[in-house]
Amino acid sequence: MPDARDEAGRPRLDLPPMEEVEASLALHAPDREPIPGLYALNVEEVPLRRVIGLQAVVAFAVYHNLVVFGEPLWDRILVLALILEPYVAIQYVVLKKFFARLRRLHLGTVFLIADLPIFTAGVWATGGTESWIWPIYLIRVADQMWIGRRRAALMAGLGLLCYAGLLLLLAAGQGAAVPWSTELLKMAVLATLSAYLVSISGLPWNVQERTLEARNLILKLESQSIELDEARYRAEMASRSKSRFLARVSAEFRAPLNRIIGFASTMLADDRRPPQDLEYLTQVRSEAMHLLALVNDVIDIARLEAGGVDLDWQELDLEELIRDTVRQLEPRTQSDAVRVSVAFPRKLAPLRADEARLRQVLINLVTNALRHTRRGYVRVEVQAEPDGTPKMIRVLDTGEGIDPERLDAVFEAFGEDGRPRKEAGSTGLGLAISRSICRAMGFELAADSEPGKGSTFMIDLDPRPGRVLHPDGLPEPRGAAGSGDGAGAPRRTDANPAPPR
Fold first, then answer.
1. Could you tell me which of 60, 71, 149, 233 has the fewest CB atoms within 10 Å of its CB?
2. From residue 229, how far is each of 6, 117, 161, 220, 222 by CA, in Å?
3. Is the CB of residue 396 less than 8 Å from the CB of residue 358?
4. Is the Cβ–Cβ distance between 369 and 378 less than 8 Å?
5. 490: left (phi over 0), alpha (psi -120 to 50) or beta
6. Binning pLDDT at 50, 70 and 90, where does residue 269 land?
7. Model pLDDT for residues 331-365, shown as the tens digit of each residue
8. pLDDT digits (tens, 9 = 90+) for 101-154
9. Where are the domains of the chain?
10. Does the pLDDT value for residue 47 go beyond 70?
11. What is the residue-wise DSSP string for 316-328?
């Protein structure tokens, strides 16, 4: 999803307007219950539908009587109409005008219950015990299923009571004319069907309830996402402002530091000075050079964080770059007990990268390894695919090692790795800069270490999701040109072989 931003440059989510969300769920402000669309249903749609439905009861009663009895039974139809028509008019006006005003009395439920006596009048108007529409009570049970089991059970019970009341009235007026065995069977069928409908009721309401909960959760998450994006934007702006400030201030230190180093070097060239003065001047130059290195690192990391570093992409001879870097750093070996070596695969294709920046990373990694290694070796190795495509550069040492729990800290600016930085002369920014440079070039820098046994820093030149870098797996090394062993003969070239001890 593209990172859309508004005119001020702040992140903006392409979210639908709240009105569209409300309209899609048929939500209205006067809703009194946690049921989406309840207000619209009872005020805008239910009144008209009830008018049509109740009028259809009269028409169906006439049709029923013509089919079953051969005549309309107008006397009973007239009584049904006199009861039904005023009821239809009253319920229409009341629902339209008073549903939203009467908060404590749910008019929808009142009229649903009042419908049951109307249904009973319809059964009486269509022949009473001879009527074929006695299952009409199931309609009210069925249309309450979506709300919940209680409502459906209430309608089922009231429907059975209304039909039983009708039978009692007919028995009181007709005596033994009521076929009780048949009517009890009808009531058993009504009870059974009602019980089944009640047992499966509530499922649609659960869906409605979950839909409402999901809607509220989505709106909440969208609000939090906007807040997080705004917080991220503010953090990015603050970080860039800090980086620009650090770069500007650090640049102001470089000129005077260079002058201090130049003056100290000039004065050190005068052998006529007392030894103590020469010692002081040496210390001044050393501290100034350390401070200058720190300033340069601060400027580098500030530029990297601000995204202001331009890369000069070119095809590199990786072997030549590594050998030249190792030769350059060889004098920094702290003792003859440390051997510096390089190793390459038989076939190595050119690497597309920024030469100056990759050299800077290699200098940081090799210098870091030499700084913390008193005995053993520092080795730079390259791994490649079968076709020679470079896939990894590793810098191994047998130095002090790093606690695995602090490996992540070594890549943070001024991160602590548990080793004495001041004695080692580190600014605390080299590895942070190296990782940032690698990521800017599409590489990944990782480390593996064990206290007392050494460390391995790995540059993955072809990072892939889910792949974990391991310190093992060096391909078979190859020899340098002119060895006399042939181009494919494996060999290792040591840049600083140490004598056996």
1. 71
2. 12, 60, 61, 14, 10
3. no
4. yes
5. beta
6. confident
7. 777 667 888 999 999 899 999 999 988 998 998 89
8. 555 566 777 888 888 898 889 898 988 888 898 888 888 888 777 777 788 888
9. 18-211, 313-496
10. yes
11. E-HHHHHHHHHHH
Instruction: Identify whether the C-beta of residue 94 lies closer than 8 Å to the C-beta of residue 47.
Output: no
Taking alpha carbons only, the member of 162, 222, 169, 159 closest to residue 193 is 159
CA distance linking residue 148 with residue 381, whole number of Å: 72
* pLDDT score, position 474: 41
C-alpha span between 141 and 278 (Å, rounded):
105
Report the CATH architecture of 313-496. Answer: 2-Layer Sandwich (3.30)
Query: What is the residue type of 346?
Result: R
Which among 70-84, 163-177, 413-427 has the top mean pLDDT?
70-84
Give dist(CA 493, CA 319) in Å, integer.
12
Could you tell me where the DSSP H helices lie in 307-420?
318-329, 355-371
Q: Which residue has the tokens 């792949």?
A: 467
CA 396 to CA 196: how far, in whole Å?
Answer: 75
Q: Measuring CA to CA, how many Å separate 500 from each of 91, 493, 496?
A: 107, 17, 12
Q: Is 312 helix (H, G, I), strand (E, B) or coil?
A: coil
Q: Give the integer Cα–Cα distance in Å for 135 and 129.
A: 12
Residue 197 dihedral angles phi and psi, to the nearest 5°? -65, -40
Q: Which residues, in sequence order, are CB contacts of 199 under 8 Å at separation 6+?
A: none
- As a whole number of angstroms, the distance between CA 193 and CA 159 comes to 12
**Residue 353 main-chain phi, psi, to 5 deg:** -165, 180
